Amino acid sequence: MSKTSRTSISMPSSAKKGSIIEIRAIAQHDMESGFRYTEGGKLIPRDIIRVFTCTYNNVEVFKADFYSGIGANPLIIFTTLATETGTLEFKWTGDDGYEAVNQANLTVT
Amino acid sequence: MCKDFIVQKSRRAWLKKIQKLAFLTLGAWFSPLTVFAKPEDATKAITEITGGKPVINGKVNLVIPPLVENGNLVVLKVSVESPMTPNDYVKSIHVIAEGNPLPNIFTVYLTPRSGSANITTRVRLADSQIVRAIAQMSNGSFYQGQAETLVTLSACTEMV
Amino acid sequence: MKQWQLLFTGCLIFSVPIVFAATDAGKQKLQSSYELMSAENKAMQDDPSLNPAMFWVGDGEALWNKPSAQNNKSCASCHGNVQKSMRGVATAFPKMIKGRLQTLEGQINQCRVGAQGALALPYDSKELLSLTALIANQSKGMPITVRETPENKAAMQKGRQSFYERMGQLNLSCAQCHEERAGLKLGGSFIPQGHPNAYPIYRLEWQTLGSLQRRLRNCMSGVRAQQYEYGSPEMAQLELFLMWRARGLPMESPGVRP
Predict the structure, then answer these.
(1) Which of A61, B99, B153, C160 could form a disulfide with B127 if both were Cys (CB 3.0 to 4.6 A apart)?
(2) Shortest distance, CA B88 to any CA of chain A (angstroms)
(3) Residues spanned by the domain of A101
(4) Which residue of A has its CA nearest to B72?
(5) Residues C225, C229, C234, CA angle at the centre, nearest 5°?
(6) Which residue has the higher pLDDT, B139 or B40?
């Protein structure tokens, strides 16, 4: 059973060709580290987002591997070159079948 | 009877010696070195990334607040000097926290289309420690930078 | 004799403002605990693209429009557009409604049970937090308007008593830290004045969104006192006093706190 959650992308909607744009991607996820214990002493299993990718017109331009040390509701801010008008797709995958996608359109002038 | 007394006394002295040794061992067992994953784990993680190749200090700038109010969410910025052209770009950046139970925090993979090697994220820091960032360049070389921080905890933490 | 009388009267006149100043010592200039945060945390609260609490506001919007399974009514059915109808509402809670002191969460549940035929939401559940965050967010930037009125006077007095009364194994009152020692340090952090103007907050300590009542229960367990129950009248009275104490401070909901 796949689970998902809200995500949010902040980036400009248009940019000049060749300029560098900043993208902020954040997902709603507890990022259970796998190092915490219940009051009864039982280890709470790890449940985190493992991989985040960004594709630009179907070409992968960015990838990040997350480990338990990433904070809850993980945020990543990165840059990419505005090469052509198109769609940027963002995908988060993680433990327990977690998957979330989001996208944003970019107009390049 | 005298003999019994002497035997008893030496037995007591022997037991006392054992007790001292036991406490010493117990103390060593409970020393902080055995509780947290320490620089050795971090070094191992770094060697796995670099494959034993030399790592040059430089080009990598890691910024974390020197004093952290709460280790659960710490803003971390890493930037690597690079022209980011198809011939000379940053292939990947690995961030390792020496004082965390698992030293690897995250890895990012960049391309010439990234434009810059500037990454910001929010991490968990278990304790005051040194955090390292290792960048692999397109020509296979490794550069590193580091930052040290003090992690505090809010005074009234939840007791559930 | 006349000189002596003059001297005495002079002393009396002089001491009056000093006495007032002494009793007003508790009334230092109101300061939100936002001011005590690091620059990174302030940025986290101010920027919606960085504030994790905005996810709950989004969830709240979805819930606002969701018809209840029982009678097909949603919040929107009665209240319409949330930005219009809920603007400024959170600044006035807790308030007396039909003779009963009601907190914002209590009122949300009252609406759910009374008008939607649905079950009340437990405190600090994701749904209740989302709705509270949504409604409180509509008052962001607006000053708290809770006043002392003849209707809430008795409740306010009880709340005031809770605040100034020593409690717990550590035998500390709220006022001893948050009025007498606000601005000083405890451990590594500054003691805030303890105003509820940013709730519900994304607390870094909890790594999630939480209510004022959750935070108050933390404080009480911090002094090893028997915690007030969620949704209890004691909680509502204390909330009422705290909001009155913070009157005039602009709301920051949903806030970020360490």
Answers:
(1) B99
(2) 16
(3) 7-108
(4) A71
(5) 85
(6) B139
